[in-house]
Amino acid sequence: MTQPALTANELIAWVEKTSTGWRNLLAAHPEVLALPCDIMKVESVAQLLQHIVAVELRFAERLSDLPATDYTSIPYDSVEKIYATHDHAFALVHKVLASNIDWDHPIEFSTRVMGPARSTPKTILFHLLLHSIRHYAQLATLARQQGIKPDWGMDYLLMNLEAV
């Protein structure tokens, strides 16, 4: 019996839908960037978004065998700059998906928190994608508490739900 599986492209579509929703909401409400935020011990929503896109970019670079961008050089002073980093990261992800990468062969890299590490490209890719979704869910709670409600459904179920 074949078990159901979620593909990388399906998960990427969910992350892109979620990111686009946030990009649009933040473009309409740029004041959200300045809201205080205690997620990840950052001071503002802008810094949380920097963290989200920094992880996307730095892990996409690792998968691409490129040097990791210095975290502190990743801009977070505008919605446009934050999502330009996201777009760059996902352009790299799409190139990796089109390549002949061995998804199960471990690679070595360095992390900001744990230092040197090793994992498979498959694990790194899925971490990159699920990490974003997790923090966007936290951001949704914070935004609602400040009276700004995202106007799109964020659950994966809504990616392929048909009313009957």
Automatic annotation (TrEMBL):
InterPro entries listed in its UniProt record? DinB, DinB/YfiT-like
Give a yes or no for keyword Metal-binding in this entry.
Answer: yes
Q: Does the keyword Metal-binding apply?
A: yes
* One example GO MF annotation: metal ion binding
Could you tell me which Pfam families the record lists for this protein?
DinB
Sorted keywords for this record are: Metal-binding
Q: Where does a divalent metal cation bind?
A: H51, H131, H135
Q: Which family, according to the similarity comment?
A: Belongs to the DinB family.
Q: What is this protein called?
A: DinB family protein
Q: Which organism is it from?
A: Tunturiibacter psychrotolerans
From the broadest rank down, the organism's phylogenetic lineage runs: Bacteria, Pseudomonadati, Acidobacteriota, Terriglobia, Terriglobales
